[in-house]
Amino acid sequence: MPRLAVLGQPISHSRSPAMQAAALAELGLAAEWSYEAIEVAPADFEARVRGLAAGGFVGANVTVPHKVAALGLAGEASEAARAIGAANTLSFPGGRIAAENTDATGFLDSLPAPPAGKRALVLGAGGSARAVVWALVTQGADVSIWNRTPERAERLAAELGASVATPDPPGDGQGAASFDLVVNATTVGMGTSRGSAADLKSLPLRADSLNEIHQLVDLAYGTAETELARAARAHGATVIDGIEVLVRQGAASLRIWTGLEPPIDVMRRAATATWESSTAPDT
Ligand code: NDP
Q1: Model confidence over 254-281: pLDDT tens digits?
Q2: Ligand 1 atom nearest to 186, measured from its CA
Q3: Is this structure's pTM higher than 0.85?
Q4: CATH of the domain at 229
Q5: Residue 62 and which of 10, 101, 228, 253 are 20 to 30 A apart at CA?
Q6: Number of domains present in the structure of the chain
Q7: Ligand 1 environment, Cβ below 6 A
């Protein structure tokens, strides 16, 4: 019985168990494979991970706050995980701990077309922004970073080969319109607030400045579509929401563990089944 899990704290509202269970069922693996949510405190994380292989686990997703620690425990790691400095996917070949970061590939897989040559504006300089910036830069996009705390944007840009954006100040946001692709990798919009008009004033972005020529990826997701995604879509922009990115990173993890092609539509339906009924976003 191969076991899979997602490890995090908190974890009870994670959509990954429902999404991955639906995928395993669609692939005809439900009778043998399982996927469970495991709440782990940071102090217990290392011991828990080191015991997973002996407990029958073949792989695990790792979410907040353990992604950096997960990479640190791994004996082997992909180029993406090493460059990003964090892992969201572990597997245990021969009892070893191998780390991958499917947040980066999941983000790229969610885009309608490869981003090579595109002008991209990434809002945020936290963990998910790091994965997005690395993914875009390695694919040949011209990446600018804006962050509420500018020093973090400067550090990230210098480390990963991007520039620091100087778009209009928060509340105006017309400057974002000069980019082809805008990614919201801040926490504005996550959870039940959905990023109200007041919240959006803290971003250098106006949804009504985006139109048919723009792509917006809003990593934030919660109980319903975010206000930013809704408004940008209403103005004609191509919108990729946080659920799509969640589905794609989960699919990339499942591909690593099973070697099979994941059923994306089934996973997307399972991930949105709790739309409006879940209270905390998480992977
Ligand atoms: P981090 O805590 O690592 O980073 C948070 C970022 O948000 C920082 O850049 C921070 O800026 C910025 N920020 C916070 N509050 C504000 C504000 N009021 N105005 C402007 N900027 C703000 O978070 P993560 O990178 O892990 O997550 C970011 C978002 O991405 C979350 O909504 C998360 O749910 C989502 N996410 C979605 C995934 C998916 O699969 N769809 C996967 C991973 C994350 P500062 O440096 O100034 O504090």
Answers
A1: 999 999 999 999 999 999 886 654 444 4
A2: 7
A3: yes
A4: 3.40.50.720
A5: 228
A6: 2
A7: 103, 124-129, 147-149, 152, 185-188, 190, 202-203, 219-221, 242, 245-246, 249, 281, 283
